[in-house]
Design brief:
- Residues 464-629 form the Helicase C-terminal domain.
- It catalyses: ATP + H2O = ADP + phosphate + H(+); Couples ATP hydrolysis with the unwinding of duplex DNA by translocating in the 3'-5' direction.
- It comes from Sandaracinomonas limnophila.
- Its EC number is 5.6.2.4.
- This is ATP-dependent DNA helicase RecG.
- The chain is of the alpha/beta class and 697 residues long.
- The chain folds into four domains: 48-145, Beta Barrel (OB fold (Dihydrolipoamide Acetyltransferase, E2P)); 199-244 and 649-685, no CATH class; 254-445, Rossmann fold; 456-612, 3-Layer(aba) Sandwich (Rossmann fold), CATH 3.40.50.300.
- 41% of the residues lie in helices and 18% in strands.
- The strands form four sheets. A seven-stranded mixed sheet has the order 6-7-4-3-2-5-8.
- α11 (270-283) runs parallel beside α12 (301-314).
- The longest helix is centred in the N-terminal third of the chain and has 33 residues, at 212-244.
- The protein is globular, with a radius of gyration of 31 Å.
- The structure holds adenosine-5'-diphosphate (ADP) and magnesium ion.
- Residues 301-302, 552 line the site of magnesium ion (MG).
- Residues 266, 268-269, 272, 295, 297-303, 449, 583 line the site of adenosine-5'-diphosphate.
Length: 697
């Protein structure tokens, strides 16, 4: 945008001194640019006018032109209402107001014609409309408007009579004077290729659409632009990094072949082989690897991680893996130790609770290179942790790793940045991966190891608990073990802990002959370990726990997962939890317990879980239901804050935007070509514009 758009809102016709502070404080609109980019979030179709005779109950909305015949006030005090009779040549309708009666009385003089809009109802056999929107009908021109923009507003604004019409009016004033100043932000080439409308036209049509078709074009154009610049920046980061940071070249693979042929406990899936090839290609390319590895729960990411570590170790480098929690670090350590031992490789664990004495030795071996694999939590990022030669760092993450943290990792090798492999704990939708991790290359394990029996998921209401207990009893008699999980959500921690304890007691009563374990976040690590170990050794049959068992825990003999208050869990969390069973040879079950009354979204979550075991499908539904900002892993990340694009719906546009960005930057990395000057200029402008950008890059 240009200087014109930096002007303060107070300079705009219609922004009165009364309105100005409201627009500033309630909507954070300060400049012309802010206003014009304040897009409607939906539109009301006002293209159609009804005859009163055509209006019937059950219509979502109706719009008509009617003449006031008469009105009367009925009742007194706060029960008073004003009822007006309105007609056109086809029939009559009653309009009713409970509030603002004084103002209505002054406005609706009998004989005047108005355009009315609202939801029709029937009351005592009469067609009625309560609190309709109204506008004095003066000329036919008024009926030519079509899609009315609806802006998101606050209660405070409405109280001061700033509604969507007022905002649309301001937009109209602004558009009237700003047209010559709206710069095109996409190159002619792109506009032609995707048959986009101009920026000017798009801004006009997004606020004051002439028709549904125009509105569609305006959205398409603005979404493309937003996603294109988002992808352009991410792709550029990726390319810059590839070109400026060399990577250690790992070419010797003897160790790996040995492991593959002598120690691999099973045949790798084709998907595992494919991603290993992709990773290997990076690790011998001479450029630093920055790759995201996606795979569903149980798809076998751990073995892939280990095989990649072998490649680093074979080439005289060290490897580390960082997990989001102690429990998961533990699990990784135990799992990897088995392989490491078989291969004669040294491995150690570092977490917040590693004792000082152990640390000293560990640091020493890390610095002199005796220690080859380090498994741990974020403690690995701390300063005293110095590697001799860190070659590969794997981040098994649940939450997004901040930029600062990633930078810290890079510094763990002063000579040459380590290769970085980020593994997601649960799948995320493709669109989200592209935006959140657009600066990384992406590998996907899209296949589960053969021979797994799909987990059966069942929904039961709380009232059927006895039946569920009966089922649990039968499974225990078959020799299986069971998880019962309770939600623990921080805000209501005390209450939740009580739920857990109550649940524990009722299960103790129901299963007097079984041994129970309990696990929750408030327990000391040693106690947690103890309980976990008992369960693993099958000394206990039922594990009553909070979501601390969510990540990583692997007990193949546990084949039933009962999730209490399942309505309180998010989809990805439910899927993660379910992934704790189905790890052995037996048929596994996941039972979702809920109360009887469920909201629409909750129903959809439960239905989705019952219907599919596919984590990628589940992630798509999650994105649809929650929007990108609330999905796990995306919190605190501004990267998904979009003004107009919708990551749940715009995957096609995003795909084109990314492909176009890659194509342009590959052909013209510095954006020096004449045809790309528009793009270059736009990037420079956006850089000045703090919004959105600073958080991401
Ligand atoms: P995740 O991707 O969830 O981290 P894991 O790496 O924990 O999955 O693997 C889940 C289980 O599947 C482990 O017990 C692992 O040993 C096993 N596994 C991994 N790959 C294969 C394979 N190709 N064939 C059979 N079992 C496998
Ligand atoms: Mg894992």
């Amino acid at each position: 945008m240009s200087h014109f758009f930096e002007q303060e809102l107070s300079k705009l016709k219609g922004v009165t001194p009364q309105r100005l502070p409201l627009l500033q404080n309630e909507l954070r609109l300060f400049t012309f640019a802010d206003l014009i980019q304040y897009y409607p979030f939906r539109y009301e179709d006002r293209t159609h006018f009804h005859k009163i005779r055509e209006i019937h109950e059950g219509m979502e909305h109706a719009q008509f032109i009617g003449r006031i015949r008469s009105y009367e006030k009925i009742g007194v005090g706060h029960k008073q209402r004003l009822v007006a009779e309105v007609s056109d040549e086809s029939g009559r309708i009653e309009l009713v107001w409970f509030k603002g009666i004084q103002w209505i009385e002054k406005t609706i003089k009998p004989g005047l014609e108005f355009i009315f809009y609202g939801k029709p109802t029937f009351f005592n056999g009469n067609l009625q409309m309560t609190h309709p929107e109204m506008e004095l009908f003066k000329s036919q021109e008024q009926t030519e408007k079509s899609f009315q923009p609806i802006y998101s507003l606050t209660e405070k604004l409405r109280k001061k009579y700033i509604d969507s019409k007022v905002i649309a009016g301001l937009q109209k004033n602004l558009l009237a004077i700003s047209f010559p100043y709206i710069r095109e932000t996409l190159s002619e080439e792109i506009i032609q290729r995707f048959k986009l409308i101009s920026k000017q036209e798009a801004l006009y049509q997004i606020h004051l659409p002439a028709s549904e078709a125009w509105l569609h074009q305006a959205k398409r154009r603005l979404k493309f632009e937003e996603l294109f610049y988002n992808q352009l920046r991410l792709v550029k980061h990726n390319l810059i990094r590839k070109n400026s940071y060399p990577g250690q070249i790992f070419s010797s693979a003897a160790l790996l072949k040995n492991f593959y042929h002598e120690h691999l406990p099973f045949e790798l899936t084709d998907a595992q082989k494919k991603v290993i090839r992709e990773i290997f290609n990076d690790m011998k390319s001479g450029q630093q690897m920055n790759r995201l590895l996606q795979g569903d729960v149980g798809s076998g990411k751990t073995i892939v991680a280990f095989i990649c570590m072998l490649l680093a170790i074979d080439n005289k480098a060290q490897a580390c893996i960082i997990a989001p929690t102690e429990i998961l670090a533990d699990q990784h350590f135990k799992g990897l130790s088995v392989f490491a031992e078989a291969m004669g490789i040294t491995i150690a664990k570092l977490t917040g609770s590693t004792k000082k004495k152990d640390r000293i030795e560990l640091f020493e071996n890390l610095a002199n290179g005796k220690l080859q694999i380090l498994v741990g939590t974020h403690a690995i990022l701390e300063d005293p942790v110095v590697f001799k030669n860190l070659g590969l760092c794997i981040i098994d993450e649940q939450h997004r790793f901040g930029v600062a943290q990633r930078a810290k990792l890079w510094e763990k090798n002063q000579n040459i940045h380590p290769h970085i492999l980020v593994m997601t704990a649960t799948p995320i939708p493709r669109t989200l991966a592209m935006t959140l991790y657009g600066d990384l290359d992406i590998s996907v394990i899209d296949q589960l190891p053969a021979g797994r029996k799909p987990i059966q998921t069942i929904h039961r209401f709380d009232a059927h608990r006895l039946q569920v207990f009966g089922f649990m009893q039968r499974e225990i008699e078959k020799g299986r073990q069971i998880y019962v999980v309770y939600p623990l959500i921080e805000e209501s921690e005390k209450m939740d802990l009580k739920d857990l304890m109550d649940g524990y007691e009722s299960i103790s009563r129901a299963f007097p002959n079984q041994h129970l374990s309990i696990l929750h976040g408030k327990m000391k690590p040693a106690d947690k370990d103890f309980e976990m170990a008992r369960f693993l050794k099958q000394e206990t049959q039922i594990m009553v726990a909070t979501t601390v068992i969510e990540v990583g825990v692997n007990v193949p003999n546990a084949s039933v997962m009962v999730i209490e208050n399942a309505e309180r869990f998010g989809l990805s969390q439910l899927h993660q939890l379910r992934g704790r069973v189905g790890r052995g040879a037996d048929q596994s079950y996941c039972i979702l317990m809920t109360k009887y009354e469920l909201g629409v979204d909750t129903k959809k979550r439960i239905e989705t879980m019952v219907k599919t075991n596919n984590g990628f499908e589940i992630a798509e539904v999650d994105l649809e239901l929650r929007g990108p900002g609330d999905m796990s892993g995306t919190r605190q990340s501004g990267a998904v804050d979009m003004m107009i694009a919708d990551l749940a719906k715009d995957s096609e546009i995003l795909k084109f935007a990314r492909e176009t960005a890659i194509e342009i930057l590959t052909a013209d990395p510095e954006l020096k070509e004449e045809k790309n000057q528009v793009i270059r200029q736009q990037i420079a402008l956006q850089r000045k514009d703090q919004t959105n950008w600073a958080q991401i890059s």
